[in-house]
């Protein structure tokens, strides 16, 4: 019987989503979020920058126009020993007639990939054995069961006391669950999300927000010092000190007592204190943490309304970079995985984003069309092929 770090080794063992420091030690001091649920609550539920970054990528991917292509048989026979020509692809709406891939499902899958690094879509078939619905499962509830060779054999879903087991493939070789994951260099079965990399910046940003809230609750200025300096050099007794401290907290502390005058007697004097430049540095620290959060999720800081960032010349360039560097690669990861899984029912299925319908990439499309149109050494058929259009009769 083997035990790993105080846990019994088993098939359904799920990796902890810790953030590791130097020497392999887990960093967990203070309010640093460690588990996946705690990281989601701190980042997606409690941090406006992280939530907006995730929703910006997920909603953009869900709003893209998606089409499917299926390969058809080549009509021209191939001579013996000759290389087979490439299959022809024709657009077909067959996977979408029953609403198999909806924008809400695509948004959920992209959100799970960004946060957890894994997205699990269960394939529900109708009476004829054809996929009728794809249902997204919460990734932290799914465990991979590997066979003797280390390959995924089944997926175990836990929801409280209820458990269900979904085979990776049925007797006909068709998948019962689609597992989409990002690259994890240290794990064979699970992907790596962005929450671990953004956990430190989220903790700093949330702590700075709480600091600002506490500062406003204390009349937007730091506490002062109540100085007792009698002429005879005596000191306050313990009872006098406790009573004075209770009166200060009840009558002069908090936002409700802001600006209330204080009456001092018996050698007491109030000395106001101000913030030093080092104390004021938390403002810049919060802005830097917000930019790190945007960087972890692949969103240009300008699109999140963060000031002080001059990486992009304008908003248009930032929006184009978001689609080219983040949205399209993420959508391609999801659609390629779905196409490979649904190809068991629709052979040669390919799911792709219609880039021509993306408004943010209109300038790139216009530039490409102008370059192809100006190429006089190309025929009309070659130009149509370069632009992604099929051949026409005649």
Provide the helix percentage. 25-40%
Q: Tell me the radius of gyration.
A: 30 Å
Largest sheet: 3 strands, antiparallel
Average pLDDT reading: 75
Order of helices and strands: EEHHEEHEEEEEEHEHEHHHEHH
pLDDT under 50 segments (min length 5)? 1-30, 73-98
Shape: elongated
Give the N-to-C terminal Cα separation.
Answer: 73 Å
E-strand count: 13
Whole-number count of domains: 3
Q: What structural class do helix, strand and pairing data support?
A: alpha+beta
* Number of helices, where a helix is a run of at least 4 consecutive DSSP H or I residues: 10
Widest sheet, order of strands: 4-3-13
Q: Determine the strand fraction and express it as a percent band.
A: 15-25%
In brief:
With 394 residues, the chain is α+β, with helices and mostly antiparallel strands. It contains 10 helices and 13 strands.
Q: What does this molecule look like?
A:
By secondary structure, the protein is of the alpha+beta class. The protein has three domains: 15-73 and 88-201 and 284-357, no CATH class; 223-273; 360-394, no CATH class. Helices cover 36% and strands 17% of the residues. It is built from ten helices and 13 strands. It has helices spanning 36-43, 48-63, 103-115, 195-217, 238-251, 277-280, 282-296, 315-342, 362-373, 380-386, and strands at 3-4, 7-8, 66-72, 88-91, 118-125, 131-137, 142-146, 152-159, 162-167, 177-181, 225-228, 268-271, 350-353. The strands form five sheets. The protein has a three-stranded antiparallel beta sheet with strand order 4-3-13. It has a three-stranded antiparallel beta sheet with strand order 6-5-10. A hairpin with a 5-residue loop joins strand 7 and strand 8 (152-159). The protein is elongated. The N and C termini lie far apart (73 Å). The model is unreliable at 1-30 and 73-98 (pLDDT under 50).
